[in-house]
């Protein structure tokens, strides 16, 4: 992934701390009834409660060294009730955020922990939570109109995660995948990295249920077989993949059918 190719591994814990702190600063003084434009069902306090709860959940898993998914329901039942005011929400966020950062910092990255992804380690939870904080920091800034730049290398890693883990597919003997269009190259103009994605339809039985979803086969770099290209800054492409507004222009060139197939994968729900 990009984080290991340019300047060494990304300091995910540092990014988690910095973006969590920025998130808190922005929302601490936001009007209570301020709506979150990127999450229109939420107001500022809903957004604060959401990230506080996410960081509590993963901090709890890390602190308990939990690996058994059967323990999740009992663990989640111990979550605090939502505080009734902003001060209570901020206090809960502070406790949750401090613990998450501290406990993940104490664990070797290879420590086994429960995770919904194939990578069930503390290292991946560090990565996932750094990106969670980044995107919700942006949500907070959009709520108050105080948008600041996203870190280029972290955004490039966010693209990699979104394509490979959130929307990617690895061939599986129990599943069938069929390409629905030619490949498309996704290129950053500032992070000096690109990916080629092939939209595929996946069918079969997975975990005891029938599935029919659209995902990407992903490879690094351009591919001569690609019939279209999507390009922009790493920050803008990361925002686009997470349905957040971009600051600059994303350029879409080439085969319109292939570009539409990419859009279809991004609009398909993630279970």
TrEMBL record:
Keywords: Isomerase
InterPro entries hit by this protein: DinB/YfiT-like, Maleyloyr_isom, MDMPI_metal-binding
Transmembrane intervals: none
Domain Mycothiol-dependent maleylpyruvate isomerase metal-binding: 14-140
SUPFAM superfamilies registered for this protein in UniProt: DinB/YfiT-like putative metalloenzymes
GO function term, MF aspect, one: isomerase activity
Pfam families linked to this entry: MDMPI_N
Protein's UniProt name: Maleylpyruvate isomerase family mycothiol-dependent enzyme
Species in which this protein is naturally found: Terrabacter ginsenosidimutans
């Amino acid at each position: 992934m990009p984080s290991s190719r340019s300047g060494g591994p990304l300091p995910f814990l540092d990014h988690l701390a910095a973006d969590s702190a920025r998130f808190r600063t922005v929302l601490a003084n936001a009007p209570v009834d301020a709506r979150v434009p990127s999450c229109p069902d939420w107001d500022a306090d809903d957004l604060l409660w959401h990230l506080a709860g996410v960081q509590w959940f993963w901090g709890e898993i890390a602190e308990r060294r939990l690996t058994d998914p059967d323990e999740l329901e009992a663990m989640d039942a111990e979550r605090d009730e939502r505080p009734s005011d902003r001060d209570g929400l901020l206090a809960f966020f502070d406790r949750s955020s401090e613990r998450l950062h501290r406990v993940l910092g104490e664990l070797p990255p290879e420590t086994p922990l429960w995770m919904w992804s194939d990578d069930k380690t503390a290292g991946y939870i560090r990565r996932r939570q750094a990106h969670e904080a980044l995107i919700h920091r942006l949500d907070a800034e959009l709520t108050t109109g105080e948008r600041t730049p996203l870190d280029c290398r972290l955004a490039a890693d966010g693209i990699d995660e979104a394509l490979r883990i959130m929307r990617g597919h690895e061939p599986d003997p129990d599943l069938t995948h069929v390409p629905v269009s030619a490949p498309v190259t996704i290129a950053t103009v500032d992070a000096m990295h690109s990916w080629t994605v092939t939209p595929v339809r996946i069918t079969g039985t997975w975990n005891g249920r029938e599935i029919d979803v659209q995902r990407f086969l992903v490879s690094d770099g351009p591919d001569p077989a690609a019939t279209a290209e999507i390009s922009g800054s790493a920050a803008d492409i990361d925002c686009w993949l997470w349905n957040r507004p971009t600051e600059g222009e994303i350029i879409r060139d080439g085969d319109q059918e292939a570009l539409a197939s990419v859009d279809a994968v991004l609009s398909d729900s993630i279970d």
